[in-house]
Amino acid sequence: MAKKYLLKMKELLAIKWIALVAIMISGLMVSDGVRAEMIIEKNKILLGDDYSIFSLKRGERKRCRTACEKDRRCQSWTFVRPQGDGLGQCRLKRSLAPGFGNSCCVSGYKKNDYRENHGNKRRGKKVAICDEWAAEAVEIAQENRRQACGYRGQAWHLDENRYFRRCMQIGPKARASERRGQQKAI
Prior knowledge:
Layout: H1 2-29, E1 38-46, E2 50-56, H2 61-70, E3 76-80, E4 88-93, E5 99-110, H3 121-146, H4 160-169, H5 172-185
Antiparallel strand pairs: 1-5, 2-4, 3-4, 3-5
């Protein structure tokens, strides 16, 4: 009798494990059916605003990206490459955190994150200002190239999304100062 009971318990336990695995797999595969488009930047670290940090093995950077894509709270992420035989780190972030070049890391952010206005009038106004600021910055950078002025660096690229992200990170005085510097140079 005890043998029958143990076999029945093992069978029930196996069924529970199968059900649990099925639920976990379906949860991984269906996260509102929408997969966010990501911009990936190699050799860049994004600083601050981490809400989740977890370890990953070498070569598992895509798991970091996937975790961000599936989490509505996540707006950007950084994967810190493992040192030696150690583990790497995935850092999920609540916002598009400021960053800089560093060979330690690969980072990414949701492409249209800031351009979606979720009913926040203040955010909507800033989005409109930054859309215009970014478009104007690209025009000035294109003029730099047309006139063969030779200016290079952060203020002279042609990536409108990058200008837009910069605008969202800085205040009105810094935006005005950067714009004056570009216009003065051309």
